[in-house]
Amino acid sequence: MRLFAAVLPPDAAVTELREAVRPLRDDRLTWTAEAGWHFTLAFMGEVDDDVLPELHARLERAAHRTAPFALRLHGCGHFGDRALWAGAAGELDALRLLADRADAAARRAGVPMEQHRRYTPHLTLARNHSHRHGHGHGHGTPLRPYLDALADFEGTPWRVDTLSLVRSNLPVSGVPGEQPRYETVRAWPLAG
């Protein structure tokens, strides 16, 4: 199973962001499906079934040790010319702590994790088409107009009170631009 730990924005936050993004949606970028909008905390990739009980137990403990906190969608950013994302503001120290704890939980459960980098909270909105096929620098659609349009976006704060474990089902149809489907397989309340 391809899994990641995540914070999922509530419907009201998704609606606000949808309205902000709607005028920007065009076919020059591959836009992510709203149903899959999330803040990844720790990406685990393919996880063996025999690791799951330990992983669940450790993620539950991580959630139990972390207090709920305030978050809001805020502004935007990009990774090179590859991806456009919405950012976050609010209690980012708490978000980073939860990300660190989710990462540690996966490592201790035996999930081979990539090198731990400083956590950048981001909700991926769109990717450049050409990125999927690997490309040299500077190809694809310039992201600047989209960044300028979303720079001042401010969402209404919400209370993050759940740690979710999400499964990513990669598309099998071979249809270009088809999105992975995400399903929440487990969720634990924050109770610190």
Which SSEs are present, and which pair or pack?
Layout: E1 2-7, H1 11-21, E2 29-31, E3 39-46, H2 52-65, E4 69-79, E5 83-90, H3 92-108, E6 123-128, H4 144-150, E7 158-160, E8 162-169, E9 181-189
Antiparallel strand pairs: 1-3, 1-8, 2-6, 4-5, 4-7, 5-6, 8-9
Helix pairs in contact: 2-3
Write up this protein.
26% of the residues lie in helices and 32% in strands. With 192 residues, it is α+β, with helices and mostly antiparallel strands. Strands 2-6-5-4-7 form a 5-stranded antiparallel sheet. Strands 3-1-8-9 form a 4-stranded antiparallel sheet. Helix 2 (52-65) runs antiparallel to helix 3. The protein starts with a strand and ends with a strand.
**Fraction of residues in β-strands:** 25-35%
Unreliable spans are none
SS elements, strand count: 9
Q: H/E element string?
A: EHEEHEEHEHEEE
The coarse silhouette is globular
Mean pLDDT: 92
**Global structural class:** alpha+beta
User: Biggest β-sheet, characterized?
Assistant: 5 strands, antiparallel
